[in-house]
Design goal:
The protein has 309 residues and is an alpha+beta fold. The chain is 38% helix and 26% strand.
Length: 309
């Protein structure tokens, strides 16, 4: 993580020429002390950095310094290109074009073929197969609001579909699993809240600015606000269902019964979300235990069947 951040700082300094340590700390969501340590490490690596005190001052790469193409290894450059390319799938095409061009300009001619091959080894596609078509435009709007410190207004729907109007100071975007979330200070609830993008409608960026609060989280841990499984249920699943079941648990949870079936200790919580997962397995899975979960599944299946009488 530190190496990735240092590479990003170099690219920012090449792009902006001069920037303050506080701006870098805000950008990478770390302390000023961490930024100064990174700057010292960059300087020791052979890229001359100087600090200009006073008004209009800041941190910059020494003027007339030409970045040696050998500063970055083949692996470094392929990693940067892979990361930037994956992010560009979910952001406006113009946003990263200049950065990608500058990074590619660092590739020495004799390493170009190797780096292209390494970059193709891994492709990270953050775009979804299907779903809410507003996600990409909402990501762009939230990102812009974070950078410009503008309030966002929207309707937020809870898991039962009930909508409430919100006005929020946005602070951080996070991709957790295959879902996008963002963190902000909700003026209506007078506290920090995590919002799932798929539950937003009518998102608007206002013309109203806000003063950034003392937001110190380096990385949003969605697990602190999203419930996780706290027990297990025993399933008997057909072999053809293994691929889907392994999206939720590791192969260690499987015990082979015969050529056609496996017994699985499946992570579970007593709520609609996990019951719906079990029901989505259809007739290729049977809950063996505990008895109360098996009984609840039967009742839910009966209610569905009653709809089609």
């Amino acid at each position: 993580m530190k190496t990735d951040r240092m590479m990003s700082i170099i690219i920012v300094l090449l792009e902006r020429k001069r920037t303050s340590a506080q701006d870098l700390a805000d950008m990478f969501e770390v302390s000023l002390r961490t930024i100064y340590r990174d700057i010292d490490a960059i300087d020791l690596a052979g890229i001359p950095i100087r600090t200009i005190p006073g008004v209009g001052g800041g941190i910059e790469i020494m003027p007339n310094y030409k970045l040696n193409h050998n500063v970055f290894s083949t692996s470094d450059l392929s990693t940067i290109l892979s990361g930037l390319s994956s992010v560009s799938d979910m952001t406006a095409k113009d946003t990263l074009t200049n950065v990608l061009t500058k990074v590619k300009s660092l590739i020495p001619p004799d390493k170009e073929q190797d780096i292209i091959l390494q970059t193709q080894h891994v492709h990270i596609d953050l775009s979804s197969w299907f779903g809410n078509q507003n996600v990409q435009s909402y990501l762009e709007m939230i990102k812009e609001a974070i950078e410009s410190q503008k309030l966002l207004t929207f309707t937020y729907h809870d898991r039962f579909g009930n909508g409430s109007q919100r006005t929020v100071e946005p602070y951080q975007l996070v991709l957790k699993g295959n879902r996008w979330y963002w963190h902000g200070y909700c003026l209506d609830r007078k506290d920090y809240r995590v919002f799932r993008l798929s539950r937003l409608t009518d998102l608007r960026m206002t013309s109203l600015s806000f003063n950034r609060r003392d937001y110190s989280q380096e990385r949003l841990d969605v697990s602190t606000v999203v419930d996780g499984p706290n027990e297990t249920v025993t399933l008997r699943v057909q072999q053809s269902l293994m691929d889907r079941v392994m999206d939720y648990c590791s192969f260690d949870a499987f015990t082979q019964i015969d050529d056609a079936y496996y017994r699985v200790e499946f992570p579970f919580m007593e709520n609609d979300y996990y019951y719906n997962i079990l029901l989505s397995f259809g007739d290729k899975s049977e809950c063996l235990a505990p008895a109360h979960v098996r009984q609840e599944l039967k009742a839910r299946i009966q209610r569905v069947a009653d709809l089609y009488k």
